[in-house]
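Suppose a colleague, Dr. K., hands you the sequence of a protein chain of 105 amino acids and asks what its three-dimensional shape might be. Before reaching for any lab equipment, you can write down a predicted structure in token form. Begin with the sequence itself:
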Amino acid sequence: MSDYQAVYDAVRSKIHGGDIGGAVEEAIRSINMGHYADMAGRSIQEAAMEYTRPSVMMRPKISKEGNQWCALYGDNLQDGVAGFGESPHLAMYDFDKNWHKKETP
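The predicted structure, expressed as tokens, is then:
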């Protein structure tokens, strides 16, 4: 269903006493506010999920190793957990993946 059809249907069901302008305004406001509230709720959920990532909670050290970035939690690669990538961002996502693969210190 197109947005225009939804507005049309809402307006048609809301016309009272010939106040077409008020009915249109009310219909548009009710349709858009629900959409924006949904978008805001999703954004809040996404932000909350980011805070639960191991790379956010454990705050590994970031360093450049050759042509790769390294995110390391622990004293060394053998005892700690590391992630590598072409950027700090990718190294952190690799760290998150590797955090769940092995027992953490």
